[in-house]
Amino acid sequence: MNEPVVSLNDIKAPIQQHIDIFEGKFRASMKSSVPLLDIITRYIIKRKGKQLRPMFVFLSAGLNGAVNESSYSAASLIELLHTATLVHDDVVDDSNLRRGFFSLNALWKNKIAVLVGDYLLSRGLLLALERDEFQLLKIVSNAVREMSEGELLQIEKARRLDIEESIYFEIIRKKTASLIASCCACGAASVKAPDEVVKRMWQFGEHVGIAFQIKDDLFDYQSGNTSGKPNGTDIRDQKMTLPLIHLLNHSDFMEKREIINTVKNHHHNGEMVTRLVDKVVERGGIAYAREKMLEYRQKSLDLLMTFPDNAYRQSLEKLVIFTTDRNR
User: Fold this and answer.
1) Which domain holds residue 90?
2) Predicted local confidence at residue 106, as pLDDT
């Protein structure tokens, strides 16, 4: 795919001042009287990524009204709960790295990482309750529930490697898309948009989130190392992503058995994984997944066109394109 035609700085332009204010509020929301917690939360802040979630919140708020204190609360609540889930995910996955940095469990061990995740979760809940932001809390709590269900559904299906395409979409809708949907819905709710608009913004974010996850799946089939060969990491982790599911759907009984055997029993055999990756590419798995990604991207853009044209909508359009054209 081509390089994104716009930078994140261009997209942030209408909300840059709100992002700057939010960063201070987010830091304050994590403060604690326990020195160890303060050290760890400062480390978390240093590792911040592209800030896509606060961007979706503020752009969705600006699209439907004027950014206000409730919008800052929404962005902080989502970041706190999302960060808590990431900390817990790293413990569950026994992962030592996140975004090129050591994970909390790698530096402070599992017990402390789990407790920090619990602390962040409680800070998010208390922040919403202290400010009577019950609608925001309801939206985000629903997203966290869906994320947990999606993770468990993926684990359940991974045991038998029997994920059908419909189940795959259900998993990523819950696991990934629900969080982006909650950002967009909370942004609209924070400016007192009507319930119908909040629901439409949720749907918009859900479409974006599905396209975003399919893009992540495609990264596994792109050259990402010095050899120039695709990584095949998802296959090594026994994850059934859309390109692989497409291959299975277009294979006969014996070939399916061979594919499942490779994923189940030979996922650490580099040569066999590479052969499987090549087969996915040759049989149109990448092209099919890309087609589905663009389909969901278009759905989100079509829905966005039902809102008034302004600088916030234009930035949201660019952000949608960015999420599917990004290189990592």
Assistant:
1) 8-206+302-322
2) 80
